[in-house]
Structures are given as structure tokens and as C-alpha cells.
Structure prediction request, 744 residues.
Amino acid sequence: MCNLSNYYYFKFLVLVNITYETFHRNVIIDAVDKMEVSMTQKSSPTMKDVAREAGVSLGTVSNVINGITVRESSRRKVEEAIKKLNYQVNSYARGLKMSRTGTITLIIPTLNHPFFSELAYEIEQQAYMNSRKLILCCSNGIAEKELEYLSLATQNKTDGIIALTYSDISRQVPDNIPFVVFDRYFENQQIPRIASDNYTGGIMAVNKLYELGCRNIAFIGFHSSFPGEADKRFDGYMSACRQLKLTPCILHEPDDTPVDPAIRNFIEKNIDPKTGSTVFDGIFANTDYDACIVREVLESLNIRVPEQVQLIGFDGTKKFYAENEYYVSTICQPLKELARKCVEMVINESEEILPSLTLLPVHYASGGTTRD
Amino acid sequence: MCNLSNYYYFKFLVLVNITYETFHRNVIIDAVDKMEVSMTQKSSPTMKDVAREAGVSLGTVSNVINGITVRESSRRKVEEAIKKLNYQVNSYARGLKMSRTGTITLIIPTLNHPFFSELAYEIEQQAYMNSRKLILCCSNGIAEKELEYLSLATQNKTDGIIALTYSDISRQVPDNIPFVVFDRYFENQQIPRIASDNYTGGIMAVNKLYELGCRNIAFIGFHSSFPGEADKRFDGYMSACRQLKLTPCILHEPDDTPVDPAIRNFIEKNIDPKTGSTVFDGIFANTDYDACIVREVLESLNIRVPEQVQLIGFDGTKKFYAENEYYVSTICQPLKELARKCVEMVINESEEILPSLTLLPVHYASGGTTRD
DNA sequence: CTGTAAACTTGAAACGTTTCATGTTGTCTA
DNA sequence: TAGACAACATGAAACGTTTCAAGTTTACAG
Prediction:
């Protein structure tokens, strides 16, 4: 029974015209099992079958499949047999023997955010281009789930792990599984980390706002309790303010703060009663997510963006219904390149020593919340 | 060499204080291999190791691991040994023996659309809850890639396939791999299909617009050349118009038409020169994607939504920066339930005959493009 | 204390590959 | 034509599980 697909099962019922109940009697089940063997060739053909069909040995078939040189005549016979039997390698047998499985595991909080989903998408595409399968694990940022997924991954002898977690799982990663970390900053500094150049991005945002006329630039952001490269955006902001001799004006709370009220409160506190506008004329928001909320709050307070306040976010989140349009003006992370780097490093075919930190350049893109 | 992580490799170089070049001489490589064996215990412990450690037989260890009853004292010994050796099942060996791998393969066009990414997310969560791993395949809707992914999946002996494709791959699916299809309509009608109740959704949209005062309701949509349940939205629209005695007003083009110009053209053609507004006062757009573009076009023509024209889309696409807010008023597909159904049916633990079509109910949600 | 049934344990065989020492064939030289 | 070497083919062993027939222990009734 167990190996019959439902479709096939259904066909069989029709064919033999018996009821479901009768069907379950052992006698009939046996009959079915036998039929199955003769009708469909039950389990897929193996290399042995191919070898027999082609009249060569197991080793020769293996050589053909793995592209090892084989006499032309043998190769042809084997290839014909493979086609005839519709043979497919059993990658679990291969995995067992080789202890290489051709899978990469991605541990990511969620897909319900365009940044994560796009990153996951790009990583999948890169994995595909490198003939790897992608195992997707959405941890929701829950430490226990992160660990559980990790141990699943090691159990499955995955060939590499790409992680974007909210807890330090590096201690539990076996030495022999390649492991790269996106953005996050672990205790074990030897683990290769990949991120955007957030620091430069922060500087870029402030400079852009300055260039566009802002002289009073606020920072709005929420920091995770778990350290990562994204924290550098704030550092970039501070550094640029120093450079440009601007007075910082900052909302920087832990990320368990309710975002909307905090932003509203911060903005209201900074409204100049004389002008009715805010004391700042530019805002650098730590993420596009924050920037979108900032914009909504500003609009609800009848402060016009970008006329009264210009706004730059971070991430490069694109409108889902328009290729290449952004929800807000933003510093774009190079997602495709980040994905490529992650996959390349986790595969690391060259077997070189990997840099412990790889930063990729960001760029600015206008999204209507700035006057450019 | 090959099994050393880079981290470990690096440590080793430091330890032994030799140069990279020297390192590659065979002699030294051998030395390393030997060291590795003694230093880290190279490959993970196997059941045999556990059995030896616990002083029981292989079969007993297997029984403990698989929750088969075993004498209490043996169980304890085995569990201790497992902990001590940090044993983990090798799921490739298990997969080989059982020809069950614990994986579900999802073939989906992309993650760069909130509908797909949310669906993928929910399916992953369901897979996790059923102790399955999710292999993600983004085909970009390219037929060849769909087939390639499919054959990868069968080669990997996946336990089930959930597909949302733009070509009929059903013929290539082996009989013995459970297969369910999301939305799409294949030639082979025995394959279980899962979708939202698009027909009712279409009716719902029209009724809602009618309820809100519209008496002239247009349909705007683009149909794939590959048939699916989503085509029923249009049927629902037509049916509701008949019911309510409304005159249909339709833009329904193939989906390779450039969307933006088509919509602009359609709308402009339907502007009443007297009022400056459109002849229709309500629009049902086939997807939220279309609806968003419709809104942008309307706004660019200075037609106000929802004051002059009310607009309902389809899918239930939420704003990425606000839980439970929609980009447009919409008919929501029950993504979580759809995902649950897909996984449940592809696993089909009860081994029942599966319905060939499962439709799940949709519901309306306001998103600011209607006057409610 | 014995006999018997029930409960548990044992280890060889099998799953479908890859590997590799050994065997076979073919080719070229002298 | 023999000898030597290269090229290729062969199939048993191994990878780490599960399974299952056969063996051993335990519990309990008489």
C-alpha cells in the first residue's frame, strides 16, 4: 500500500471495482503489492539494474555517471541503459557514501518582510546556480527554534549553513560544517561574517540629506539586543554629524519598544510650536520599515514629506507592484551580491582561508521622500 | 584536508607554525589527517559507537532512537551514551534504508512578491510543525527550470511536492511521490488541487462594491496562458454582474501585455468628458498587484480613490511595515489555511483518497480604497 | 522449582552508492 | 612475435541506518 500514490491507488480502485473496505483485507493488499511490482516497476531502478542492462560492471556505471573516463563503447551502452530505464541517482545513497549532500541550509527569521524574502530568493538562486539545494528554515527569531533548526541541519549533514539569527548559535555548529553568518556578530570571531557596509551607508544617508539642503538631521532607529553590523548605521550617522558639524537629534530605543508610539512621541516632542513643523528637516531612519512608519506619522501630523522633512531609510525595499521603485528614499543593500557572497563562502571551493568579515558596498536610491 | 573547517584549518596553521605553501606537501597533509583523527574525533559517532559505549546491540540503540519499547535499564544506558558521544542520527543512512527523507519540496515562481513569500513562509512553518524540512525551489515560472527542479526533487527522494508552476509538470512526477498543486489546473485531473474559492471571491468583490454604492463596476485583469483557479475571479465578476443586472466593463488581456499602459489606456478611454471622472465608479482588479497600479494610474489622472472610484483587489497583500494593514481593499486568500492544507495533503498520513479539488473560503478586508 | 509465554535483545542482511585493489584488454616497441 | 606498459573494467567492501528471524531473559502460574 504505502508506496502507491493516491492517484494510483484511486485508479486501481476503479480498475478492480472493489470497495474501500474490501480493499483493506490483507489478501487484496498482497495482490496489490504484487500488481504494483509488475505494473509500475515499484522502486526506481538502481545502478545495478543499469549495469545489468548495459552489460557492464557497477564501477563502470559509476564512472560514466561521475564523468570519469570510460571506453567510448561502454559509455554509450551505459547511457542508453540509463535512458531506457529512466535511471536517476539516489542521492541519499550517494550522500551516505560521500558525506556530501548538496544542500545548503538557510536559517532566517521570516519571509514576511521583503528584505528577508528577497535575500532568501537570491540565496536560493545562487544555490541553484551552484547545483545546491536550499533548505529553508524560518526561525521567527526564536532562539530555541534557531537551535532546533541548527541541529536538524547538522543531523542532515548539510554541506553548509547560512545563518541570520538572534542568538549566538555558533557554539553548536560542528567544526566540519561550513558556516557563515549574515550581519550578526558572534562571540567566536573566527566565523566568517558577511554584511553590507552599514557604516558607510549611515554616512551616505546623512551626506545625501545634507546635500539636499538639510541642516538638522535626526536619527530614528531601534536596536536589537543582539549585536550585528546593522548597528554601524548609527555609528555612521554620528560620524557624519561630527564631520558636518551637525547637532545630532536621536531616537534610538531597544527593539522591543512599540515603534509607532515611540516615533509619534519623538516627532511631536520635536515640533516647533511657531512653525508647526519639526525642528529637524531631515530624518535618517535605521530601516525602510521605520522610515515607512515615520512617513505615516508625519503625514498624520500634516507634516509634508519631502517638502518639510526629507526622509531616508535603509535596506532598499522595493514596491512589490513596481520593479525598481522604492517605498522611500533609501540606502540599498546589494542583496544579490550579498547572496552570492554567502553561497560562495559557504561552499568555498577554493578551500582558502576565508576573511572573517566581508562588507559589500551600498548605494543610495531615491524613493520620493527626498527632494531629488 | 577536506574535512577541516576553515576555522580549524586556521587554528592548525597557527599551532604548527608552518607556511601555507609547505602545508600543501603530501607528507604534511598526511600528518594533518592523522592529527585530525586524534584531535577532533573526525567523523561523527555512529550507532555502532553508541552501542559499544552503552554495551548493547545495534538493534537496541535503534529501538531507543525510534521510541520502540526497550528495557528501562537499556534505555538509560543508551541515552547516556548518546549524550556522552553527542550522537546524532545520520539522516542519509536512514533515508537510504527507509526511502523516506522527511523533506517536502516547494516549487514556486519567486519570493519577490508578498503573496508567494508569505505562502512559502506559511508552508515552511507547517512543514516544521510536521517535522518535515522544506526544500525551496524558485523557478521564476520558467518551464525548463520547473522540470529541472522536479527531477532534482525526485532524485532526492523527497517525500512530497507542492507545486505552483506555469507548465504542466504532472506527467513527469513519479507515481510514488505525493504531489499537490496550488491553484493551477493540470491535464491530469486526478492530481489534488488546492486553491482559494476564487469564484466566490469575485462575486464578493462585486457585491461589496455594489453595497458601497457602485452601480458601474469594471473588471481589470490579466490572464495567464496557463489555466488556474484564479481565472474564476473573472467568472465570479460576470456572474455577479448578471445577478445584479450591471453592465460589465472589462479589461482582460493576456498576462504578457504591458500592464501599466494597458490600464492607463483603458481608464482614459472610459473617462466621461463631461464629468472628468470615469464612467465606472467601482473597479474589481484581478490581483492586488493590478489594483496598486490601477490606483497609481487613477491618481496620476487626478481621479480620487475612493471618493470617485472605489477599488477592490484580490489576494490580501499586507503592508510590510504594518501588521494587518492592506495596500488596497481586497479579497483575502486564507494563506495560512491554504498552506496547512497543502502540507497536510502532501503528507496525507491518513492514507485516504484525497479530493481532487479543495477550495478554501476567502474574505473581504478594507484597505482604504473603498468607502467603508 | 519447573514450564511457558511474554518481553526484550541480538546481529546479520539490506538499502544504493563510491572506491580501489586486482584483473583484463589493447597498443606499441624492438 | 613477445614483452611491457597503459588504459580500462571488475566487483567486493564500506558508508550508517533499519529490520527481522532467532536467541535470551524475565515473570509468573502451577
User: Anything to note?
Assistant: Residues 128 and 134 of chain A are 8 Å apart (CA to CA). Residues 56-60, 63, 69-71, 74, 93, 95-99 of chain A lie near DNA strand D (CB under 10 Å from a C1').
